Amino acid sequence: MLWLREKPLDLRRVRLMGVLNLTPDSFSDGGRYLEPEKALERARQMVAEGADLLDLGAESTRPGAEPVPVEEEKRRLLPVLEAVLSLGVPVSVDTRKPEVAEEALKMGAHLLNDVTGLRDERMLALAARYGVPAVVMHMPVPDPKTMMDHAHYQDVVAEVKAFLQAQAEKALRAGVPQVVLDPGFGFGKLLEHNLALLRRLEEVVALGHPVLVGLSRKRTIGELTGVERPEERVQGSVAAHLYAVAKGARLLRVHDVRAHKEALRVWEALEG
C-alpha cells in the first residue's frame, strides 16, 4: 500500500501515473497544456481513461533543458495544481526545487517526485514534514542540462541500485514515510544502459520499495522502433512497460493512459 495522505493506493495491482507537462519545451507534448483550462481538460481525460494518479511538472528535464526560475515554475504549476486537486485523484508534483515543492505540498499534493533523487536535504525535510511519500530517481548528476555528459558506467545496474538504496535509506531516516524507486530511464543513460536496467529490473525491485518505471515515448523507444515522433511511440512504450511489469514494476508513468489501461487489463486477465 502506498499512503498518499488520505488516499491509499493498493499496489497489488499495477497503477498508472498520468503525465501532465505544463511546459513549453518538454520532449513529447511541450506547449500543449500551458493554459490552465487545457491542462484541466487533459487531466480529466486521463482520469476518465483510468489514471490512478497524475504527475504535474512545470520544468522540462529533457537532456539539455535550461532551468526554469522558481517564480516561473510556480506560475505555471500552482493554478493547475489547485484545479486538478479538485478532481479527487492523488497528485504527484514533479519538481527539483524545494521552494516549489513546499508550495505544492502546502496546497495538498500527495507525492513528491524529485528527479535529482532527493540529493537536497530540504526536499527530505519537506516530505517528512508533510507526511508524503517521495520518488527517489537516479540521475548521475543533479542537472538535466549536463546529465548525458555523465552517461558512463562500469555496471549501470549495480551503480543505480547502490544510489537508490542509499538515498532511500537516507530519506527514511529523515522521516519520509515511504519511498518509491525510479531507475531514471533516459536520465544520463544511453540505450545500452536503459536496456540493461530493464532486463535486470528485478534487482531494483528486490530492494523492497515500490518501483516506478517511466519509458513513455522516450528516445529509447524511438531507437528500438525507428519511430521519430514521440507521440507515435505508443505501442513501443506499452511493450516496454509490460516487460517492466513482468519484472515487478508496480507504477507506470505514462502519457497514453488508455492504451496502457487496456493492455494491463489483458495482462492481468492472463496472469489471473
Automatic annotation (TrEMBL):
Pathway: Cofactor biosynthesis; tetrahydrofolate biosynthesis; 7,8-dihydrofolate from 2-amino-4-hydroxy-6-hydroxymethyl-7,8-dihydropteridine diphosphate and 4-aminobenzoate: step 1/2
Catalytic activity line of the entry: (7,8-dihydropterin-6-yl)methyl diphosphate + 4-aminobenzoate = 7,8-dihydropteroate + diphosphate
UniProt KW Transferase keyword: yes
Cofactor: Mg(2+)
A GO molecular-function annotation: metal ion binding
Family statement: Belongs to the DHPS family.
This protein's name: Dihydropteroate synthase
Biological classification of the source: Bacteria, Thermotogati, Deinococcota, Deinococci, Thermales
